[in-house]
Amino acid sequence: MEMEMRCKEEIDISIDITPYLFPLSFSLHNTHLHTHCSSCFSLLTPNNPTTNSHPPFYCSPQCSIAHSSIPLSSAEHHLPSSTTSSLLRTALRLLLLYPHIPSLSNRFSKLLTNRHLLTCQNDDVSETIRVGGLAMATAIAKQNDGGGGGLIEPDDGYAVLEIATVALCVVLTNAVEVHDNEGCALGIAVFEHAFSWINHSCSPNACYRFSFSNCSSVLSLESKLCIAPFTHNSQQLKIDSGVLGSSSEFAQEGRMICGPRLIVRSIKRIKKGEEVTVAYTDLLQPKELRQSELWSKYRFICCCKRCSSQPFTYVDHALQEISVFSGDSSVLRSNYKFCRDTADRRLTDSIEDVISEYLLVGDSVTCCENLEKILIEGLNDEKLEGNERKSHFKFTLHPLHHLSLSSYTTLASAYKVRASDLLSVDSEMDLNQSKAFHMSRTSAAYFLLLAGAAHHLFISESSLIASVANFWIGAGESLLTLTRNSEWSKFVNFDSVLSNLASDTNFECSKCSLMDRFKACTLNGQIKSEEFENVSNDFIHCVSDITPKVWSFLVYGCHFLKSCKDPINYNWLTSFESDSCYTHESENVIGVSERAYNDQTGAHILQLGEHCLTYGRLLACICYGPHSQLVSHVQNIIDH
Questions:
Q1: What is the pLDDT of residue 242?
Q2: Alpha helices (runs of H) in 484-528, residue ranges in sequence order
Q3: Which candidate, 338, 277, 335, places its Cα nearest to that of 304?
Q4: Rounded to 5 degrees, what are φ and ψ at 227?
């Protein structure tokens, strides 16, 4: 029976539609066992109490009391080191709650097992289940034989393996990755069916956030549950009185609640009776990649409105667009399709290889050189294997292609690292200071390009709001960081700039009143759909006016960035109906020496950075709430 969650009432954007939900089972990834609390996932500090020399570690006595018995009782300490993972630990801990679930059941405490589909193919997923289930069964047997408290006591070993396999399938089907504010994956958690029954959409109307407060913190549970289960058999909205599940059950059993908490929040207006959906995958991927990931992980094909659109939506078209140029237009159409698929694979492999090598080796210089070379030069058809007909094609990634967005993200980070590395060698050397300033400036330009490109797609697909929020915040933070570089003093009197801006009502903009509107949103805890649209339009109008005044300064010395005419307004892109929709040529870009810039340039960069941060903060407020840690982080940056 297919389950889903629907709204019990009309919901506007930026509304919490569940109270805090607590996990049934959870575990940190191996890489964070030494750095984060095993109970609440909060970051450990030198002041955190601990009596152990090895994990698990806890941030407070309360977290230790609530969680410390679980690792010993779950038999996870019997897992061999070669197989121990957050996946197996979470599955074993789930069996602590439900040790007597029938192995043939399609439901595990109301959660879908999906066992048949997960194990029907001979692939990595089925192999993970086979190996993991065997390791769990062996650990359970050792726990029972050692007198450490029987986790499961069935009639024979085969039944233990069956139940272990079912628990593993439940985790694979229902677990979500728990991320911190910087997007780092800390671990996984399985939540009650109030969350696990929320289905996926590539154009979702809700998102969720995590809280890592320790067990001693008192959380406000004022938010009510605005959703209810719906079954296609009943054809009516059915309210399940037990939908809060674990939280109330644990309280009744006298068991302390622990683990990272989750709350679901609307990012679109949702009608009464409308299904609530979230995203299970990265929405800035084209349809083919999303479908592939969803099938490999969850064994379903997404049929949401975005995926079912024929032709593709504007966003999905842009995310996979390859530009092609040819000196011989007579053969362009006839030979284009033959080469395009091969070029797409080659460009994908090239970009992914460079990014993977950078993440593995950390060579930021080589990374920047190779990525920018691919973005500028693309591929010529004579380099494509199997192409015997030479027509002098040139294939490049469209500036909104998903690999372009990945490249901008990587380049922004790599140039930031290069600046930091230069200053760490000898921050007093003028040459290093100058190079570091150039690297920081280029990094800020890539952050701004990424934010503008993603926002252009966001206009057509509002469910991209969470990604766009992070990109605008990244752009604003990098721009303000740039203004603090000592190299500014060589051509900008920043004391004068700051003095003038400080007297101008604390950087508030008279055109868009973004600060005033955000303050109202923070006080109310939400923003109305109509008001948000007005704020967004005013924001884009303002940054579109400021950006041309600083863009040539930011991109000075970077050939690829010069070819991007405007990072905010994408009207310069030719229609996708044309085969040659974009060119990396920069004939109209005039390189102007940075020495030509003055105090006004510094003022514009400060204003642009403040606008980006404030708008990103507003988007984050919609996604995560006005008191979330990300919103507080941005506020601290602006205050300083």
A1: 41
A2: 494-502, 514-524
A3: 277
A4: -125, 160
- CA quadruple 213, 216, 218, 224: dihedral sign: positive
Give the span between the Cα atoms of 60 and 49, in whole angstroms: 6
Which position has the token pair 């920069």? 586
Dump pLDDT digits (tens) for 258-267: 899 999 999 9
What does the pLDDT average to over 105-116? Answer: 82
Distance CA 205, CA 5 (A): 12
Calpha distance 61→607 (Å, rounded): 46
Residue environment code for 518-532, b if the CB has 16+ CB neighbours within 10 A, otherwise e: beebbeeebbeeeeb
Task: Identify the CA nearest to 522 among candidates 623, 615, 625.
Answer: 625
Distance in angstroms (rounded) separating the CA atoms of residues 206 and 152: 38
Cα–Cα distances (Å) from 69 to 148, 149, 156, in that order, read 12, 12, 27
Residues facing residue 396 across a β-bridge: 323
CATH number belonging to domain 1-20+192-308: 2.170.270.10
CB 397 within 8 A of CB 327: no
The percentage of the chain sitting over the pLDDT mark of 90, rounded to a whole number, equals 51
pTM of the model: 0.88
Looking at residues 482-494, what average pLDDT do you find? 71
* pLDDT for residue 579: 41
SS3 177: strand
Tokens of 338: 């033959």
Q: How far apart are CA 552 and CA 558, in angstroms?
A: 10
Domain ranges of the chain: 1-20+192-308, 23-176, 402-639
User: How far apart, in whole angstroms, are the C-alpha atoms of residue 183 and residue 57?
Assistant: 22
Mean pLDDT of 388-392: 55
Q: Give the separation between CA 605 and CA 448, rounded to whole angstroms.
A: 11
The 3-state DSSP class for residue 534 equals helix
Return the pLDDT at 328: 55
Number of H helices, E strands in the chain: 23, 15
